[in-house]
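Late entry, evening session. Most of the bench is empty. Finally got around to the prediction I had been postponing all week. Sequence below, unchanged from the version circulated by S.P.
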Amino acid sequence: MTCAGESHQRVSAPTNLLSIKANTRIGTWNIRTLYEVGKAAQVAKEMTRYNIKVLGLSEVRWNERGQVRLESGETIIYSGHEDQDHAHTQGVALMLSPEATKEKIAWEPVSPRLMSDRFNSKGRKITIIQCYAPINAAEEQEKDEFYAALQSMIDHMDHAPRRDIKVVMGDLNAKVGEDNTNKELIMGKHSIGNINENGELFTDFCNFNDLVIGGTIFQHKRIHKTTWSSPDGKTENQIDHITIMRKWRSLLDVRTRRGADAASDHQLVTARLRMKLRAFKDKSKTLHYKFNVHLLKIKEKSDEFNIAISNKFDALEGLTVTSIDDHLVKLQDTWKTACSEVLGKRKREHKDWMTAETWEIVKIRKELKQKINQCKDAQQKKGLKKEYRKANKQVKKNARKDRRQFVHDMTEETETAARQNNMKRLYEISRTLSGKNVNTITPVRDKQGKMISSDIGQKARWTEVMRMNNKQNTPIQLNGENIRETDKFTYLGSIVSKDGVADSDVKSRTNKARWPDTISNASLWEKTTQDPIHIEIKRRKWGCIGHTLRKSPENNTRQALDWNPQGKRKVGRPRQTWRRSVESETKDAGFTWAQLKKVAQNRVRWRGVVAALCSPRS
C-alpha cells in the first residue's frame, strides 16, 4: 500500500531501519542545550557509541526551524521559536544517523515543543513524534494547549497515515507511578514513584491513542529506570518516556544509559525495536557505494589495476556470448570485481576540529559522572560534583579554544593552497570559514504559510512558484502601444500557441525560419543604452574593491588586497595578474594605492572615482 504521491519503487526499496533481522535502537534525551560550542559533537559521539539510529532531543534551545548536517555525518532536524531573535528556550530536535537519514520521508516542525518525522521501514512506515512537555507546575492552559496540539498531530497528519507505526517520545515531565490499575493495556508495574498531574494527562493521552509506555513494562534496577536527578541528588524521577502503538508493539527493551554524558541532569533513554514480519530479500545488485578512484593517480596502483583488468578480460575471451545484454552484464561484473579487489570502497573522512586533549577531558568528565552514580556517601558525592562542574567548565573552555585554533589553521592552509595553485581546496576552505558549506535546508512553505516537509510537495511548490514568477503581469509596450494578449499568432509562417508550436507545423516550417534583420553589438548597446561588457565588469570590480577597503583591517578579505605572495612564478603562468592590472588602471587614472584607501572610506567620493575609472572614453 502506498500513500498519495509515493512511488512503488520507494515503497519496495530495501531499508536498514526497523528491519526483521537486526535490532534498531532509538532514544530520547533532554540535553539541556545545544546552543553551546562543541555540544552537538559530544551528543553525536554518544549517539554513535550506543549505536542509536534516531535520537530525540529536548530543550535544544535553537530558534527557527531547519535541517543541519554535522561534520561527523549525522543530520539534525530541529523546531524552535520562529523568531530568530527570540530568547533561546525550549526547542526539540531529532538527530539522525546516516542510515536513518536515507530512510527519511518527510518531517514536520509544529512548535518549540513538538515535531515529527516519518521514516521508511519494513512493511509499515514509522512516524516518530518528539515532545517537550510543560513542567508539572506550569499553567493549566499551557498543558491543555500542548496535549491538544499533540492530539491534533496524530489525528490530522498530512504525511503520516493512520496505518503508520507511531512512536511518541521525549521529556513529558510526567510521573506515571507504579499503580497500573485499569491501565494494564498501556503500562506495566515497573515504574517508580507516584503519579502526578502531568502523569494523569499523559496516561489519559496514551489510553485514548492506544499507546504503550515502554519504560514501565520491562523489569530493571531502579537506577536504570530513573531519567532525571535533582541537583542535590536527593530526588529521582522517571519523567522521560518512549511510547509505541500497542498493535505494533515491537519493543524489546527500554532503559536509561547512565554512562552517556553531555553535562545534563537527565539520563539518556534508549529502546530496542524489531519488526516481526516476513523477510524481504533484496535481489538488486546495485552498488550503494563508490570506489577509491583517486588511487589510480599512483603509478603502482594504476599498473596493478591495469593488470587485473587485463587478466579478467583475457578470461572472458573464451566464453561464448549468447546476447548483447549478457555480454554487458559480464563486462560490468568484470569492472566492479577489479575495482573492489584493487581500489576498494571509498570511505568518507570527517575532520574533527576538537582536539584529543579536549576529548580526554570529556572522558574524565564522563568518569566523574560514573563515580557520582556509584557513590553512596553524601559528602564524597558533593566533592565529586564539584570536580564534575570544574571539568565541564574546562570542556567548554577548550572547545572554544579548539574552534579558534581550527579557524587559524584553515587560514594558513588557505595560503598554502593559494601558493600551490590548488583552487579546489582554496574554495573548499573559503566555504568552510564562511559557513556556506553547512548543509542547512530551510523548509518550503505553501501559500498559506504552512511548512511543506515532503520532497514531493516541495518540488510541486517550486514548480508552482517558477510558473508564477514567469507570468508577465505588466503589459509589454512597443512604440508606446500595449501589445494585446492572444491565444495564438503566426510568426515566420509558423503558428505559435500558448502550448507551443503544432507538431505538423514544425515539420513543415523547420527549414524555412529566417531572421528578418541582423544587428551589430555596437548598435545593440546604443539602442539599449548599455555600456560594453568590459566596462560593466570593470565597474563592478572597482565597486567590490571599494566595499572591501571599507572593512576593518583585521578582516581576511581586506588583508587579501594587500597580500603579496613571495616566490618565483611557475612556467606557463600569465605575466599579467589581477593585482598588476589593478595597479596599472590606478596609475593611468593618476592615483596611488594609498590614495585609493583613503578615498574609499567616503562612499560619495568613491562613486566619483569609479565613474572616472570606468568611463567608456577611458
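Two things to note before I forget:
The domain at 12-273 is CATH 3.60.10.10 (Deoxyribonuclease I; Chain A).
The longest helix spans residues 378-419.
Will write this up properly tomorrow.
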